């Protein structure tokens, strides 16, 4: 395969990938938009239905209570069973309620035995026993105010019941009936969402003159919008999965998840099925897809022409540039090799200097022992190791006896010489790889002895003391001895998890103080004094 063909194929693949990515992003954006719309509309519908239930219950519960209290003439006619007078007196009230609330349907009067005395919507129908309806049975049985969704002859509605008593005698209940379409119509106006109320078939047996279409499990009883009037499309809509788009001959619909409806007693009656007409959005999407495909095809054709005629010239220039670049690379490679060798040498010199500086930073320049900084770092490591392994850790705190008197009388150069001699003794006798000898202060030295019990540490300290004394270094200004001597404090512990590292240092220092206080030139172990002999 020639280079020209490879370039053409590569560019085409990249264009296809880019086009696919753009199509995916657009589709993804469209899906996210639909999901967001579904979520917003569902939440608003649920909030609207909950608000409608609350408002209906609150408004008509108060209204029914005031109605019984403020219309004694109506209650009197109700108690007397005077249907004509009762109908005449409630007629203006019913008309006023319908003007105030277009969803108000009727005002009914139920007698204590469960028979209907009067329906404002059907004054010609009375005397039938309606106790087979759960709402009526509950209202008459409890003789308490009751409200919520319920089913009766005319179908699903909000019913608010107010008990009526005359001279403490229960005569029946006044029932306000309100159609449950307020929230659905509001959703239709705000979001262009059409909704249908479907009741489970088992609850529809008592509804008279039911004209809505019935399906295997549910029946349509109320709806807002014209979509639910087409029974052929409705069957496909009911059986479709939730949160999916449906395509009909001329329309595209988006089906939401159903909203469960429960009656006054919490029993599920059915559900509300919201549907959104997205035909315009779907057509816009198709139009956009067509435009994108057209532009993509045009770009591919132009790209093929440009690549076919332009790659020849381009490749010839590339070849000339490649030869020039190879020459430059060869020159630059030679220069880089020389520079690399110089850098390697410089790095070696710097590493050597850095190691020297590191040693200087951790070494006492006079005695060439580890300094206090080096000791602190090693001490922390060995302390933690002792905590993990539960092994003993010992410290020897060493002080040159009356070193100040020696310095003041023999001079500082002689004092420095003594420090170097003592350092050599310590280095010669403390030999294990993990042991550490450090200059701790002016004339103070310290030995770090990992994995060393108290008796071994004390033995080593005594050996150091005797070795220094055996040097017979003249010290006429020492009160203890006419030769140079040292005092040693020994402390040993097995580090515990709750112990502090500073404690062992303090114990070694206390032991040294005790050795000096008891006459010097001796070894004292913390809490276990050891005489020089």
Distance separating the two termini: 99 Å
Tell me the quaternary state. Answer: single chain
Number of helices: 12
Query: How many β-strands, per DSSP?
Result: 17
Overall geometry: elongated
Question: Would you list the SSEs in sequence order as H and E?
Answer: HHHEEHEEEHEEHEEEEHHEHHEEHEHEE
Main sheet overview: 6 strands, antiparallel
Characteristics:
533 residues; six-stranded antiparallel beta sheet; 12 helices; 53% helix
Short structural summary:
With 533 residues, the protein is α+β, with helices and mostly antiparallel strands.
Explain how this protein is built.
This protein has 533 residues and is an alpha+beta fold. 53% of the residues lie in helices and 21% in strands. The chain contains twelve helices and 17 strands. The strands form three sheets. Strands 6, 7, 8, 9, 10 and 11 form a six-stranded antiparallel β-sheet that branches. Strands 13-14-12-15-16-17 form a six-stranded mixed β-sheet, with helices on both faces. Helix 12 links the parallel strand 15 and strand 16. Helix 1 packs across helix 7.
């Amino acid at each position: 395969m020639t280079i020209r063909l490879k370039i053409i194929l590569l560019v085409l693949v990249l264009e296809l990938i880019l086009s696919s990515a753009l199509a995916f992003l657009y589709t993804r954006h469209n899906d996210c938009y639909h999901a967001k719309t579904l979520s917003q509309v569902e939440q608003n519908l649920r909030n609207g239905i909950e608000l409608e239930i609350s408002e209906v219950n609150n408004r008509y519960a108060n209204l029914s209570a005031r109605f019984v209290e403020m219309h004694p003439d109506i209650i009197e006619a109700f108690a007397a069973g005077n249907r004509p007078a009762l109908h005449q007196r409630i007629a203006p009230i019913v008309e006023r309620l319908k003007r105030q609330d277009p969803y108000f349907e009727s005002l009914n009067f139920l007698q204590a035995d469960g028979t209907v005395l009067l329906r404002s919507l059907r004054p010609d129908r009375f005397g039938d026993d309606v106790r087979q309806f759960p709402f009526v049975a509950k209202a008459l049985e409890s003789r308490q105010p009751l409200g919520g969704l319920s089913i009766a002859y005319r179908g699903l509605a909000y019913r608010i019941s107010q008990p009526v008593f005359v001279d403490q005698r229960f005569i029946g209940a006044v029932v306000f009936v309100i159609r449950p379409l307020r929230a659905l119509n509001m959703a239709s106006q705000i979001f262009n969402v059409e909704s249908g109320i479907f009741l489970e078939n088992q609850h529809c047996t008592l509804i008279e003159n039911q004209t809505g279409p019935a399906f295997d499990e549910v029946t349509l009883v109320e709806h807002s919008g014209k979509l639910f009037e087409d029974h052929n499309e409705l069957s496909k809509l009911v059986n479709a999965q939730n949160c999916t788009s449906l395509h009909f001959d001329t329309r595209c619909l988006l089906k939401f998840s159903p909203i469960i409806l429960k009656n006054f007693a919490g029993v599920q009656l059915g559900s509300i099925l919201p549907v959104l007409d997205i035909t315009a959005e779907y057509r816009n999407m198709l139009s956009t897809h067509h435009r994108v495909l057209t532009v993509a095809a045009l770009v591919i054709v132009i790209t093929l022409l440009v690549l076919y005629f332009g790659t020849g010239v381009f490749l010839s220039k590339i070849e000339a540039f490649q030869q020039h670049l190879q020459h430059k690379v060869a020159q630059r490679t030679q220069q880089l090799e020389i520079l690399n060798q110089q850098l390697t040498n410089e790095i070696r010199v710097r590493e050597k200097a850095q190691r020297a500086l590191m040693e200087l930073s951790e070494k006492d320049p006079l005695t060439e022992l580890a300094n206090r900084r080096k000791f602190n770092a090693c001490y922390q490591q060995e302390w933690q190791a002792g905590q993990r392994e539960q092994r003993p850790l010992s410290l020897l705190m060493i002080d040159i006896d009356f070193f100040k008197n020696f310095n003041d009388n023999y001079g500082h150069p002689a004092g420095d010489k003594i420090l170097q001699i003592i350092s050599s003794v310590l280095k010669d006798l403390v030999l294990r790889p993990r042991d550490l000898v450090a200059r701790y202060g002016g004339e103070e030295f310290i030995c770090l002895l990992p994995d060393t019990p108290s008796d071994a540490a004390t033995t080593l300290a005594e050996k150091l003391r005797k070795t220094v004394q055996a040097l017979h270094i003249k010290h006429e200004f020492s009160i203890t001895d006419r030769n140079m001597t040292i005092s040693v404090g020994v402390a040993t512990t097995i580090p515990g998890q709750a112990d502090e590292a500073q404690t062992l240092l303090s114990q070694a220092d206390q032991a040294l103080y005790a050795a000096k206080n008891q006459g010097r030139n001796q070894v004292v172990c913390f809490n276990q004094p050891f005489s020089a002999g």
